[in-house]
Amino acid sequence: ISSLDANTLLVIYERYQPRQPGYSRVFDYWMAIISKSDGSILDSRQLRGWTQEGSERDYCVVPNGQGAFLLVENGSTFYYYDTAGNVAWQMSYPFDNYWSTDAARTFCFAPNGNLVAGGALNYGGSGQQLPAVVAFSSTGEKLWEQFFPQSSADPFYGVTVDGSGNIYAANKIAGGPAIWKLDPSGTKLWGYNYTGMNEPDRIAYARGC
Question: How far out from the chain centre does Cα 50 lie?
């Protein structure tokens, strides 16, 4: 569930058919726009047809604060819905899938409408998975990507953007959690590793989704 604007909510849900002997259970996925005033369904549509068990989908909704929103499927396919609820653009990026290391895990919009995604990517086709932050234009074109080759580093779990367009990204590297600052063009400005915290592996990150 996500708040789209002052009047509406967006809900993503799945339905399933009971398992039949000898068959896998199957799912389909739906999106509904709900009125905040009375809970009525203003719009409902199917996102994905029947899918067999083991091939379930994961969805993330990122509102832009003006009634439009980004829908991310399995951390790699992006659909941008305009304020009328129509898909204005869609694209795929070589984040593999949400549950693997090679995935986009966190998203936010910058003040200028650009999209920032954080996660991990295959670095230069080498097969090495590195934490990465990627920026896209308001029409889904890649602007830049920045890799973080620190050892023992997790994917990014949280990104946020300030009013000047600077980006802050959080992950965990050896010794504890870390926060990085990038300027609007993706240049690294600083990084700080908060070492010495108790139980660093159990620190929860607020994902941008």
Answer: 23
